[in-house]
Protein: ABC transporter
Amino acid sequence: MTTPDRPEPRTGAAILRTALRRNASAMAWGTLLMGMYQAGETAFPIALGLIVEHTMRERGLGSLALSIAALAMIITTVSLSWRFGMRILQKANTTEAHRWRVRVAACGLQPVARKTGLKSGEVLTIATEDADQTADIIEVVPLLISSLVAVLITAVALGIASVRLGLLVIVGTVAILSILSVMSKRIGDGTREQQARVARAGAKVADLISGLRPLHGFGGNHAAFLSYRRLSAEARNQAVAVAKVNGAYAGTALTLNAILAAAVTLTAGWEALSGDITIGQLVMAVGLAQFIMEPLKLFSEMPKYVVVARASAERMALVLDAPPVLTPGSARPSGDGGLELDGVRYGALRDLKFHVSAGEFVAVAAYQAREAADLVSILAANVPPDAYEGVVRVGGHPLADLSIDAVREHLLVNPYDAEIFAGTLRTNIDPADAGRMIPEAVEASMLTDVVALHRDGLDHAVRDRGANLSGGQRQRLSLARALAADPAILVLHDPTTAVDAVTEQLIARNLANLREDRTTIVITSSPAILDAADRVLVLDGGTITAEDTHRNLLTSDQTYRQAVAR
Structure:
């Protein structure tokens, strides 16, 4: 695995172009139908003006019936075109938002991490809110075009009646859009900052939830709360500032639109009094002046939505275009082959060397928590090979030469804080429904009492993060999932810290029996697991300082005895 060169960044504009191109057909139909809707809405006051002109010349029931039929046809066109047009656009919008959510989530969940510089809570916000706001462009463009159609039809209709009225609509529309486009830039800048601050606050919440138990343990929950309160207040203040700008934008748009409508109405009234236009044309002009308020409002709001969509797309580009931490190789390990670390130097590790043969059960007693964490990070391939010295070999091949899929199939590292998902006990043990060795894993992890406790057994519902399970139950459930996967090499980090001594003893014995002839490495200070292992490696000062069976080390090494004896 080698660190790749950074590719050319994908911009927010490129993401928007992709969304537009992918939904061109739906947008074309949506634009057509929404254009028909706006044309029908515009035709209504025009038809009223023509009806007035017609009935004033030819008074009769026939003329009235014809007028009513024409209005009914316009109303039907307006209703059906709106219904089907919005259905097409909203379906395309929802589908596109789903596509981007999946893309962002895939980047966050893929085995090789990406250099995003973002926390998980921020990525979650991008995968939800920003994906939705980016997909809004699918609706924005057709609505923008259809509103433009309404404004043009209005200008042409009024221009036929009076050139002055037509020019008034065109000049007024251009002036309104020019003023609002300047304001929309400020909205975009504020929205971009608001999204970033909300994402940071979300990331802080995710961190607090995952670390709530240890925070309570050393009394740091109050300081953590104050930290979140500060971030939340910053996000709130920014949201208020954006809301003020949005309010000013909406108020300005409404005021300018009302001024234009009033100007059209007054000008039409003056020309009617002067005899330049007829009574029917006056009715049409007044009706269009009232109608044009809505498409002008919609038309004037579109720049704001475009800017917001652009800002969200740029935030998605931070995730989608981020390069992977490392580029996997293509080799696959041969058989089991065991595990070897040769001269590894990283973090607290100093020239770490050890070899675990195929089928061996080895325990690592790490005196420092940081040393254990760094070792787990190396074995889990969370650290790129060029970030540490030395070589890690899996099945006889350097880790850098293996494909990520091969590493994940061959080597499973189960951290002490493994996630528990919303679902059931069964889906947590076997997420892929691969028919793995669930009964054996449940028994070996001593999860049998949890299964027997509930009427639904393995189908008992589990809440997000295992909120309805105790700490020991969550830990045993995580262990059962790791055992059910049955990898060639299994690495466990403190798998029994939340269970009692009797259960720990049983788990240690079951683990040795279930993993017989399979390579197993447990990083732990548990006397029961240390005693069940074939041999114990003592990790102190970043290197292996002693190696023997647990009982021999208890007899010969006083430091070891003080560290692990309970």
Summary: The first strand starts at residue 339 and ends at 346. Residues 221-273 form the longest helix (53 residues). The mean pLDDT is 81. The chain is about 65% helix and 10% strand.
